[in-house]
Task: inverse folding
């Protein structure tokens, strides 16, 4: 059955403190797989997954970043070009929640201005160890006008939903532009030009 | 900033595969609407292709590639022209460069410098190379430097940063993926379809230029149940010259309306398509309730008549998809005449080869690319080698089998010369040709032709069974009788729910495949601690990168954003770029060497032994590799002003204190300082003075590296043991120490004055008088010592000339950061001579007056 289709490519980025479960979220989403062994991500990795939204096939390229403090300066340089950012904290770890503000500031400084954001409170299956209430997560999201969801990569709660909602938000933004323009936008990543305009009036 | 440094900044603007082969600073563009100045011209080479770029720089000279923006791109192709004029008012100093490429012309004003020759040479080499190549270069690589509009060459385009998110996997092969999905879905068709029987009615009639003056229900409406699909074909609809020449006929509508009128009235039909070529008409109708399941209706016509092209013979076809089954109907009129069966075979092949169904965004389909094919028509094959009267007699006896043995089509079909792979049902009806029109009598003309089954129906495809194959002799207006066949055909119908599931599985599989093909490596160490690192002592660590993916992987250590090099200057990574095959490994050596430049920076606290390397896999991830170490501070690489303030071995001085002293070295004054010269210099000089003045080849024979390192440790730790090593090693350590000081003994800014004054001892003395205090002390102290050494020239073989050359280089060190034209060999010799001359004065003259002025 040959439906008229074209692919859109959305780039998403997972950021947040080390150990909040970014890689697990990505694995659950892409491979429907979960492992309890913790291996710290030392760098930037990605996986792809195709989803269908409103009849459109959308390829998500999801970048997983190293959360460790010492890599922050480097990882911020990967923000540019991302169309959506998932900001992850761990509901059983107060500090990872407190750092959300820091990550938001990072996004403001380094990401595209129109990037779609979403806050995820991960590990919501570990109710007995919870230290950050859902209300606090919702409050900070509301304060910054961002979507929010509690997730569990382990129990597979809200993982697919989170990604489709983020992708849908990006789709809403790109609606109105045609697919070709979208492809062009992805293919050519222009740096903000710091040089003055070349065409200048000569006295 | 010198030429090479500027060049490397310009190179940064381009990809590493795009090499800047020549460039000119200080160019002006002469364009009525533009600011003239601050342009750079460069020639960039990519493979065999070259182009001239004009760059605008926001700071002059450019400090970083972000200062540059590409303004003009002129590919050097066969349209490229270059003309050079002198500026009439200033012919010696200024050139005009007229460059033209494609339809763009630009004039540049260039300052006449020796570089211009290089640039112009390179330009003409490029033009010459293009003229020798037979094929024109394509300049695909330039596309990214153009704007959307190819002709709009003025763009502000910056190169995509080489690291990071933006780089990877942008060009997802969407098209390949699409066809892969299609292919996979086709393979799994059985999983999401079920079959449903459709009845297909096929009818063919050569109407011999007649109008439909009789009812047709005896042909079209004879089955028990109304068929689901009608495919009705006519031949010789109109034999007029006009139709043949202009392909226009009113008969098309006449016969079409007749068909519409006489199809089975028990069901409602709609037209799918009709197609006509001269006298051949094919009409396909379908029950209205199925029309929504039909897609991609396309038709085509092929003429095989006169000259193999005209439409008096040939075939017309209609294809479409019903549910998930592709169907094709062909109505053909093949070459006439009894003996021409080879020609008919050829017509069949031509129709097969030349029929092309074009669909938007899809590869054209041929007849054979369909699940079900129904081929009808006046195929014109005859009965050979049987006497017409015998044939007629056999027909009378109803002995068709006997005659069919001599049927050309049966014979050719059996031998696979025509309709290979097709099936025809058993013929149980009388030949359909040739009758006297209006009767059931055989042709009574003089020709006395043998009757023949000209009008036939074939099919090809799975799950088709013929229900009927018959002629309709009552319709007698033509010299042919109409023929029809009905089929029960299995059509694959999609189960939407199952389809979705299979489709999702396919997508999932492809995603999985794509994820598996992302390059993957395993790096055995991502944190490398070099431990204690000492001055000038090389340390090596090895890491292993193993390709654990399925494809070869290319890695490269890439620059972090806004950095000019992928690692710190004290680190060497070998190899920094390589391709590793699947399951193979590559060892990478990381070498740390602290030389004077990096020692100075570390001592001053502007650098430390810490770096994060970004190991990038092309098309894949980035891995961060952290390199650390602890630098053991040494007197090498310290400032003289710092050393004179250290009253204990440097090893015992806290790092923070050292950094503080380095940063305050300009405020260092004599009355607060511990020594008048660094004790380390004194130790080394004193040792040579006491033990080595008579040593042959003093300062000329190199020491042992290992001993120099021991002496370094001895100086840094303040050992009470005697200085280790030979005199030559001590002498070398002294030279290395003097060379490594953060600032040279004669400050950089005084160097040119010294060189100018070098012939005049009094002036030289004057300069030395004005040196910063501790440097003056060191200078005079060393000169005194060297004078002493020269006293023993008989033994140590030294002469003033050698020593002044050696120490001239040390006292008057060149500033590594200064912008200067690269020195020619001759020029360098002159400067070196002057440096030696300057020092020479102080080795042969008594300058004790200077010492006592203190």
Result:
């Amino acid at each position: 059955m040959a439906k008229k289709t074209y692919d859109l490519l959305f780039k998403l980025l997972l950021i947040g403190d080390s150990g909040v479960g970014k890689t697990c979220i990505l694995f659950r989403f892409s491979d429907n797989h979960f492992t309890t062994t913790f291996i710290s991500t030392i760098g930037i990795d990605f996986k792809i997954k195709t989803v269908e939204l409103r009849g459109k096939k959308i390829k998500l390229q999801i970048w997983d970043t190293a959360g460790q403090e010492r890599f922050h300066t480097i990882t911020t340089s990967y923000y540019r070009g991302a169309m959506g950012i998932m900001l992850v904290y761990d509901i059983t770890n107060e500090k990872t929640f407190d750092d959300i503000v820091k990550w938001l500031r990072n996004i403001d400084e380094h990401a595209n201005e129109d990037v779609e954001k979403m806050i995820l409170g991960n590990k919501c299956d570990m109710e007995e160890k919870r230290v950050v209430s859902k209300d606090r997560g919702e409050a900070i999201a509301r304060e910054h006008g961002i979507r929010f969801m509690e997730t569990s990569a382990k129990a597979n709660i809200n993982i697919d939903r989170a990604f489709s909602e983020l992708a849908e938000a990006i789709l809403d933004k790109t609606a109105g532009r045609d697919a070709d323009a979208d492809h062009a936008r992805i293919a050519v990543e222009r740096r903000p030009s710091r040089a003055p305009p070349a065409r200048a009036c000569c006295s | 900033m010198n030429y090479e440094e500027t060049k490397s900044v310009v190179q940064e603007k381009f990809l590493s595969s795009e090499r800047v082969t020549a460039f000119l600073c200080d160019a002006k563009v002469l364009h009525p609407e533009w600011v003239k100045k601050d342009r750079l011209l460069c020639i960039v080479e990519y493979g065999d292709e070259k182009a001239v770029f004009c760059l605008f720089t926001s700071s002059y000279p450019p400090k970083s590639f972000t200062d540059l923006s590409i303004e003009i791109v002129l590919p050097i192709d066969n349209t490229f022209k270059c003309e050079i004029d002198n500026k009439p008012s200033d012919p010696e100093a200024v050139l005009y460069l007229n460059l033209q490429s494609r339809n763009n012309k630009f004039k540049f004003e260039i300052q006449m410098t020796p570089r211009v020759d290089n640039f112009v040479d390179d330009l003409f080499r490029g033009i010459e190379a293009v003229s020798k190549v037979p094929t024109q270069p394509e300049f695909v690589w330039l596309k990214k430097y153009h704007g959307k509009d190819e002709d709009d060459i003025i763009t502000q385009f910056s190169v995509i940063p080489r690291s990071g998110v933006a780089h990877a996997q942008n060009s997802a092969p969407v098209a390949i993926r699409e066809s892969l999905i299609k292919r996979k879905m086709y393979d799994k068709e059985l999983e999401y379809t079920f079959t449903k029987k459709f009845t297909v009615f096929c009818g063919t009639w050569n109407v011999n230029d007649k109008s439909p003056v009789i009812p047709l229900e005896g042909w079209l409406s004879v089955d028990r149940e109304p068929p689901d699909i009608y495919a009705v074909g006519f031949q010789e609809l109109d034999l007029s010259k006009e139709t043949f020449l202009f392909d226009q006929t009113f008969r098309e509508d006449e016969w079409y309306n007749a068909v519409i009128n006489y199809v089975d009235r028990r069901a409602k039909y709609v037209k799918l398509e009709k197609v006509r070529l001269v006298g051949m008409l094919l009409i396909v109708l379908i029950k209205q309730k199925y029309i929504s399941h039909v897609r991609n209706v396309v038709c085509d016509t092929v003429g095989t008549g006169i000259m193999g092209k005209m439409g008096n013979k040939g075939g017309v076809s209609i294809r479409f998809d019903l549910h998930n089954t592709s169907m094709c109907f062909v109505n053909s009129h093949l070459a006439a005449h009894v003996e021409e069966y080879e020609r008919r075979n050829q017509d069949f092949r031509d129709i097969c080869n030349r029929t092309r169904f074009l669909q938007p965004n899809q590869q054209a389909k041929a007849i054979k690319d369909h699940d079900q094919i129904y081929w009808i028509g006046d195929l014109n094959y005859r009965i050979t080698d049987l006497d017409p009267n015998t044939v007629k007699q056999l027909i009378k006896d109803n002995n068709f089998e006997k005659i069919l043995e001599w049927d050309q089509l049966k014979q050719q079909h059996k031998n696979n010369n025509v309709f290979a792979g097709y099936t025809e049902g058993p013929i149980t009806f009388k030949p359909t040709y040739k009758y006297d029109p209006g009767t059931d009598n055989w042709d009574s003309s003089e020709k006395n032709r043998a009757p023949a089954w000209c009008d036939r129906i074939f099919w090809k495809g799975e799950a088709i069974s013929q229900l009927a194959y018959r002629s309709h002799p009552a319709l007698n207006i033509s010299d042919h009788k109409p023929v029809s066949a009905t089929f029960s055909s299995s059509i694959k119908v999609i189960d939407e729910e199952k389809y979705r599931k299979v489709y999702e599985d396919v997508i999932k599989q492809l995603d999985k495949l794509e994820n598996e093909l992302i390059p993957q490596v395993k790096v055995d160490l991502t944190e490398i601690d070099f431990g204690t690192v000492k001055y000038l002592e090389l340390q090596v660590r090895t890491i292993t990168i193993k390709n654990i993916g399925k494809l070869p992987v290319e890695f490269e250590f890439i620059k972090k954003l806004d950095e000019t090099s992928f690692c710190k200057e004290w680190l060497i990574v070998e190899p920094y770029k390589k391709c590793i095959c699947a399951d193979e490994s590559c060892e990478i050596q990381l070498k740390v060497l602290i030389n004077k430049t990096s020692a100075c920076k570390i001592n001053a606290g502007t650098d430390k032994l810490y770096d994060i390397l970004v190991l990038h896999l092309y098309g894949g991830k980035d891995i961060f590799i952290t390199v650390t170490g602890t630098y053991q501070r040494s007197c090498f690489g310290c400032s003289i002003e710092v050393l004179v303030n250290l009253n204990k071995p440097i090893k015992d001085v806290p790092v923070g204190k050292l950094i503080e002293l380095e940063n305050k070295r300009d405020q260092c004054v004599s009355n607060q300082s511990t020594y008048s010269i660094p004790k380390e210099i004194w130790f080394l000089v004193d040792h040579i003075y006491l033990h080595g003045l008579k040593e042959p080849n003093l300062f000329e024979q190199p020491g042992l590296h290992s001993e120099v390192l021991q002496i370094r440790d001895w100086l840094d730790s303040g050992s009470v043991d005697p200085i280790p090593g030979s005199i030559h090693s001590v002498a070398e350590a002294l030279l290395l120490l003097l060379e490594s000081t953060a600032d040279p003994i004669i400050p950089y800014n005084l160097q040119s004055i010294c060189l100018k004054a070098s012939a005049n001892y009094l002036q030289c003395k004057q300069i030395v008088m004005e040196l910063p205090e501790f440097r003056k002390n060191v200078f005079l102290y060393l000169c005194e010592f060297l004078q002493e050494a020269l006293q023993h020239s008989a033994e140590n073989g030294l002469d003033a000339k050698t020593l002044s050359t050696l120490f001239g280089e040390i006292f008057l060190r060149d500033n590594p950061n200064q912008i200067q034209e690269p020195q020619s060999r001759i020029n360098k010799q002159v400067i070196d001579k002057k440096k030696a001359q300057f020092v020479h004065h102080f080795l042969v003259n008594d300058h004790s007056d200077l010492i006592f002025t203190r």
Remarks:
- Chain A has one domain: 8-183.
- The longest helix of chain A spans residues 159-174.
